Amino acid sequence: MGSLDQLSEMSADNSEYQRRRDEVAALAADYVRGNIIPDVKYTDAEHAVWQLVAKQLRERHHSVAAPEFLEAAERLDVGVEEIPQLQMVADRLDGLTGFRLQPAAGVVPFHRFCGSLADGYFHSTQYIRDGSTPFYSVEPDVLHEVIGHGSALADSRFANLYRLAGEAVQRVETETAVQFIAKVFWFTIECGLLDAPDGPRAYGASIVSSYGELDQFRSAEIRTLDIVDMVGADYDITQYQDTLYSAHSLAHLEDVVGGFWESCDDTSIDRLLAAVK
User: Strand order of the sheet with strand 193-194?
Assistant: First the structure.
């Protein structure tokens, strides 16, 4: 395994990082769902990024991540020494919850990304972030996908919430409805919290895969989980979040958010949006 000094090697020139990112992303271009996911020949420097970040995230998770997330991550058990191949992660998830992975070349439009969840497929990138900024990525990378979403998808209750979000997107027809489902997805699946005796703990993929945000999220305005309140809440995916929502428990999350996704349609979402204008 490469030393941490090698982190700078893969990004001394940002154009070289972009070239490498595009090279890995190209593996997904011709992928056909159901085929074996092609392996990536990761460099020592890339493995070093994973090792550095994954080790520090694992240590931090014990004090601020939700117990349900910790248990799910332990089930997935991808390790911290090297970047896992996506097919290996996919096989483990399939055995645990029936979810499968589909390689993605980059950010997938929400309607397609979320709609695939209803079919038990999660779109995942395979490239890893720029080594010059190992604790920050401007877009989803394999660290975010596997440590954040992959861990949650190893738990049957979290996995069911992903499926319900996908079914909701497949059910609605208007872009307004899709965007509101996306907002609820952001405040829960990506940035959600669960109450705990020592303060709210994170399960959302964007928080648990970001060492910086794990240190900052308790400084946000933390509101009780409420779909109606989310209508007027703003968010910026490029910044640490100013407003977050915490469920009393996983059962509370399932009742409120799972119940919403299970029953929502264009009409009910329009009524919800109109009621708070």
Answer: 201-202, 193-194, 243-247, 221-224
Tens-level pLDDT at each residue, the chain (277 residues) = 333 333 334 334 588 999 999 999 999 988 999 899 999 999 999 999 999 999 999 999 999 999 999 999 999 999 999 999 999 999 999 999 999 999 999 999 999 999 999 999 999 999 999 988 898 888 899 999 999 999 999 999 999 999 999 999 999 999 999 999 999 999 999 999 999 999 999 999 999 999 999 999 999 999 999 999 999 998 888 788 899 999 999 999 999 999 999 999 999 999 999 988 6
Catalytic residue (choose from 151, 190, 210, 213): 190
Of 137, 209, 210, 246, the active-site residue reads: 209
Residue 144 is a catalytic residue: yes
Phi-psi region of 129 (alpha: psi -120 to 50; beta: other; left: phi over 0): beta
User: Does the active-site annotation cover 248?
Assistant: no
Which one of 11, 149, 206, 246 is the catalytic residue?
149
Write out the two tokens for 190.
């990506």
Cα atoms in the Cβ-side hemisphere of radius 13 Å centred on 89: 33
Is 252 annotated in the active site?
no
For the chain, domains (ranges, CATH) are: 4-275 (1.10.800.10)
Calpha distance 188→66 (Å, rounded): 13
Instruction: Evaluate whether 158 touches 99 at the Cβ level (below 8 Å).
Output: no
Q: Take residue 247 and report the two structure tokens written for it.
A: 């469920």
Looking at 124-174, list the stretches that DSSP marks H as alpha helix, in order from N- to C-terminal side: 142-143, 151-153, 156-171
